[in-house]
Amino acid sequence: MTLADVHLRDLRYFVAVAEHLHFTRAAEALYVSQPALSKQIHALEAQLRAALFERDRRTVRLTAAGAALLPGARAVLSAWAAAEAEVAAALARQAAALVVGMSTGVGRSLLPAVRARFAAAAPEAELRLRQVPWSDPTGGLAATGEAASDAAFVWLPLPDQERFAYAPVATEDRLVALAAAHPLAARARIAFADLLDEPFLALPPESGPLRDFWLALDERGGRAPRIGGEVSTSEETAESVAAGLGVVLLAAGNAALLQRPDIALRPVTLPPARLVLAWRAGDDRPLLRALRTAVAQATGTA
Fold it and tell me: Is 90 exceeded by the pLDDT of residue 107?
């Protein structure tokens, strides 16, 4: 038997008796009955195979073994109390933080306005923005553990859309990015029908319906797209477009991500894209409500 087998309660009872040197007063301080306390001390002594107290009708004294145990018992209880306080503080910080995932650029002067309104509504809370890979079209909402988001700025459509609720942020025209030397780059506006035979850059397969949306699958009349490559970052996309590996669709608000001399950005005849703030269906925590209100105010949809 080792000290590691002893419960914190046993040490707490032992320290109380050692400090009061009186079983009744120790029991009162612990809010337990005196017989229950005595029974527990006896059990502890049996576990340790050592008497901890000398008792007679009038006095209670620590034995040599009890005196040896007392500093360590106090240290263990103090360390546990400190650990409990750290856990409580961590939970408080977690409860006062909202993680917002983003797999797209959310400039559009939106984030500063949202931050300001959220801070005014919940000054004790922290808004943490997290960049999420393009392979997760839910912006972290479908993830678990440390990778999970509480809310996310994402493009529709969402996979398993019934699992999520969302509010509009922006409706934006879709553009096509193509190499500046591409023959179609000379046009001011490009009909999507003229792009059907072009190789397209695609999101990773894990992005599901979002990959289909940015390949404009619904506008192809059943014709399968030619995939010129898969891209997972804006940097990969820019290099692939400039190298002529394929064309790519993007939202007008993200045009700055591909703006460089060797890339042409042109309007394309397609329905617009919808950017939303999404969250898990049924999640109605106060901080999440504060974020939704802040976004609605910043976008003028309140």
Answer: no
